[in-house]
C-alpha cells in the first residue's frame, strides 16, 4: 500500500481526533490534498476512525465536491443555474471547453485542469460565475474565460489569477475575492449601524428564559424559508432533556437565486456570531456549529480568523464576557456541494460526518438533533436578527414590518433587472414596488423563494411579500418578456432531479416523470390529459415525500400550471391520435430491419 | 384498478349487450388463464357481455365496436403494435392487464441489450443452441422485433391498469363488474397486495 497516502490519511485523521463523526472534515481535507478520496484512502480512513468502509464511501459518493477518481489540480465548476444561463453562461462554458480542448466532466491530458458544471453557487447578482477550486470568478465573459484558462495553463493556481478585488471585506487579506456585495438597500435591522456586543450584554443580564421570552414577544420567524417561530423553537430545545445542547447555523444557502447569506457572512458576521452566542445562552448550549456551504469556502479563513478575534475578546470561550458558567464556542463545518444539506435534518447528518440524508421526524432537532442532543437550527439571517432584537428590544422589532410578519427581510434579487443585489425591506412590500425599486421593466414572471417557492405572473404583482402571502427565504428571480418560462421550469426540474437524496421513490422517480411529461408538452406532443397528469403526480410527490425538498420540488410545474396555464394549453395538440405521439414505430423497427435485411411490410 | 382518465360508461345505450375483446401480445397467456379462472362466474359474464375478438373464442376480426378491450402483454414486435392499434381503434376502453402490459414484464429483460446481440445469443451463441447453419430465423412471415419491449401505454392511450402477474381472477372479475355497472371500483387490500 501507498505509504505516502497512508501517512497523509493518518495525519488528517489524527488532526480530527480519529473521530468518526468528523468523516466529512477528513474526506474534504483529503480531497484537497490528494485530488480525490481513492478506494485505498477510504479503506485507510475507515480503519483509522473505526468505521465501516461503506460509511466512508457513502459520504464520498454523496457530495458533488468529493470524488473517488482523481480530478485535475484545478477544478473549474461553471455555474449553470437558470440565471447564469440567462446571462450567457452557455457561451462562457463553450469558451472554457474550446480553450481547454476538453468537454464538460473531462480533465486535460496533463491532469491539471478539470471542467465541470454545478448548480447555483450564490452569485446570481454577478452571473455568469464559476468556482475554480475554492476561488469565485464572477461576471464571466468568453474573453475572461479564455484569459483565465491561459493564466491557469501558465500557473495552475487559481489564487494567482489577477482580479479586481471586490468591495468591503471581499478585499480582505484572507478573502481576496472579486465577489461584490451589491448591497443595494440598507434597512433598519441588519444593515443598520449597531452597537457591537450590546445585544449579547443585554442577554447575559437576563435569565435564559427571559431571553426566550423576549424573542417570542418579538414574533421573530425563521428567515431560512419555513418561517417557524424562532422563540418557540428555542423554547422546545431549552426544555428538552440533555446536558449537552447545540446551536447550528444554517449557512448552506443552496436555494437557486439566494445569495444574501453570503453578504451577511462577509459583512455582518459579528451579528451572526453574537446571535449564536445569545441562542446558546438562551437554550443552555455551550457549542455552536456554522454549516458553511462548500461553495463559500473562500470565506472560511476569514471567518475562522474572526472567531479567533472573538475568543481573544472573551466574546467566545470560557465564561463569556465574564458571565460565570456560560461557556460557548463556535466551529465551522464545511459542506461539499449538496443542496439537500440545507434541510435541517440533512444538515445535522452532514455535521455528524455522514451522507446528507434527511432524517425522519419526529423526533425534531429541538428534541434530538446533532449527535442526538437537543439542537436549534437557524438561518444566518435569523440569528443575526436575534442580536438586534436583544439590543433594541422586541417592541422596536415588532414596530417594523406588518402586524403578522415583524421585521425586515433581506431579499436576493437577480435576473432581468437593472440593479441585481441584496435588498433589506420591511416585510410587506408589494411585488410591483419591488420591481420598480430594482428597475425591472416588462417583467413577465417573478420567482419568489427559489424553485421551491412559486412562479407568479403579472396579474399577481399586486401581492405582498410576507408570511401570510408570498413567503420567501429571500430568492427573487425576475424573468423578462423575452424568456421562455416552460424551458426555465424544465431547468429547475433538472436541479431537483440532480439534488434529491434518492431516499423516497416519489421524489427520486416522480420528479423524473414530471420532467419527461413536461418535455412531451414542450415538444408539442402533449395532450390535455398530460396537464391533469402533471397536477396529479405533482400533488402525489408533495404528499408522499419525506422532506421539504420533495415536498416542494413539483412547485415550478404546479405554480406555472396555475399561473401560466395558457402557455401549456397553447402547446397542447388538438387532434386526437390513435398512437401515443411519443412512440415512433419506424425508429423502433430500425434495428430489426438492419439485422433482417428487409423492410417492415406493415410500417 | 388504477384510473387513468375518467370514462363515461356506455350503459343504457341501445345497442344491446356490450361487447368485450381480449388480446395477448408479448405475454405468457397467464393473464388469459386468470380471466378463465373466474370459473363459473364466466356464465354470469356471458349474461352481461358478448365476447368479440379474443383468443378465447378465436374470433380474428372485430365484428363491431367493443366497450372493453383487455390487453395482456407489452409490445415486442410490429405485430403487437399492429394488434394494439387495432384494439384502440375498436374499443372504447382499453385496460392493460398484468405486469407485462403495464411494465413490459419478463420480456422487457432484454431492453438493456441491443436487439442484434439478443438475437445472436438466442439463435447462435447461447450455450444450449444447436444451429449449424448459424441463421437467425428470418422468414418474411415472422414479425420484426422492436428495439425493445414497450409497455402498452407507451404505444397507445390506455384507460385503466390492472397490476399483478397475473392479476387474480377476483381482481379481473371485480374490475369488469364495476366497469359494466358504472360503479367505482373498490378492491380489497388482499387483491392489490403483491408480496
Ligand atoms: C431542501 C431544503 C433546503 C434548505 N436550504 C436551506 C438553506 O440553505 N438555508 C436555510 O437557512 N434554510 C434552508 N432550509 C430550511 C431549513 O430546513 C430550516 O427550516 C431552517 O434552516 C431553519 O432556520 P430558520 O427557522 O431560522 O429559518 C432548507 C430546507 C429544505 C427542505
Ligand atoms: S423528499 Fe427527496 S430529498 Fe427528501 S428525503 Fe425524500 S428523496 Fe431525499
Ligand atoms: S403479467 Fe404475468 S401472467 Fe400476465 S402475461 Fe405477463 S408474465 Fe404472464
Topology, element by element:
The complex is a heterodimer of chains A (603) and B (195).
Chain A: H1 3-15, H2 23-34, H3 39-49, H4 53-62, E1 74-79, H5 82-86, H6 89-100, E2 113-118, E3 130-132, E4 135-137, H7 142-154, E5 183-185, H8 198-205, H9 208-217, H10 230-239, E6 246-251, H11 260-267, H12 269-283, E7 287-292, H13 300-312, E8 329-334, H14 344-351, E9 375-379, H15 380-392, H16 394-398, E10 408-415, E11 421-426, H17 431-437, E12 443-448, E13 454-457, E14 475-480, H18 485-499, H19 505-508, H20 510-522, H21 528-544, H22 548-552, H23 555-563, H24 565-569, H25 585-596
Parallel strand pairs in A: 1-2, 5-11, 6-7, 6-9, 7-8, 10-14
Antiparallel strand pairs in A: 1-3, 3-4, 10-11, 12-13, 12-14
Helix pairs in contact in A: 1-2, 1-3, 3-4, 6-7, 8-12, 8-15, 9-10, 9-12, 12-15, 18-20, 20-21, 21-23
Chain B: E1 2-3, E2 19-24, H1 30-36, H2 41-48, E3 50-51, E4 66-72, E5 75-77, H3 78-90, E6 91-97, H4 99-103, H5 115-125, E7 145-150, E8 160-162, H6 169-180
Parallel strand pairs in B: 2-3, 2-4, 4-6, 6-8
Antiparallel strand pairs in B: 1-8, 5-7
The structure holds flavin mononucleotide and iron/sulfur cluster (2 copies).
The site of one iron/sulfur cluster has 13 residues of chain B, from helix 1 and helix 4.
Description:
- The complex is a heterodimer of chains A (603) and B (195).
- Chain A has 603 residues and is of the alpha/beta class.
- In chain A, the strands form 3 sheets. Chain A has a 6-stranded mixed beta sheet. Chain A has a 4-stranded mixed beta sheet with strand order 2-1-3-4, with helices on one face. In chain A, strands 8-7-6-9 form a 4-stranded parallel beta sheet, with helices on both faces.
- In chain A, helix 1 crosses helix 2, helix 9 packs across helix 12 and helix 12 crosses helix 15.
- Chain A contains 25 helices and 14 strands.
- Chain A folds into 5 domains: 60 residues, Arc Repressor Mutant, subunit A (Orthogonal Bundle), CATH 1.10.10; 89 residues, 3-Layer(aba) Sandwich (Glutaredoxin); 198 residues, Rossmann fold, CATH 3.40.50.11540; 73 residues, Ubiquitin-like (UB roll), CATH 3.10.20.600; 85 residues, NADH-ubiquinone oxidoreductase 51kDa subunit, iron-sulphur binding domain (de novo design (two linked rop proteins)).
- By secondary structure, chain B is of the alpha/beta class.
- Chain B has a domain of 131 residues: NADH:ubiquinone oxidoreductase-like, 20kDa subunit (Rossmann fold), CATH 3.40.50.
- Helices cover 29% and strands 18% of the residues of chain B.
- Chain B contains 6 helices and 8 strands; from the N terminus they run ββααβββαβααββα.
- In chain B, the strands form 2 sheets. A 6-stranded mixed beta sheet of chain B has the order 1-8-6-4-2-3, with helices on both faces.
- The radius of gyration of chain B is 18 Å and the shape is globular.
- The N terminus of chain B is likely disordered.
- Chains A and B meet through helix 25 of A and helix 3, helix 5 and strand 7 of B.
- Bound molecules: flavin mononucleotide and iron/sulfur cluster (2 copies).
- The site of flavin mononucleotide has 23 residues of chain A, from strand 9 and helix 22.
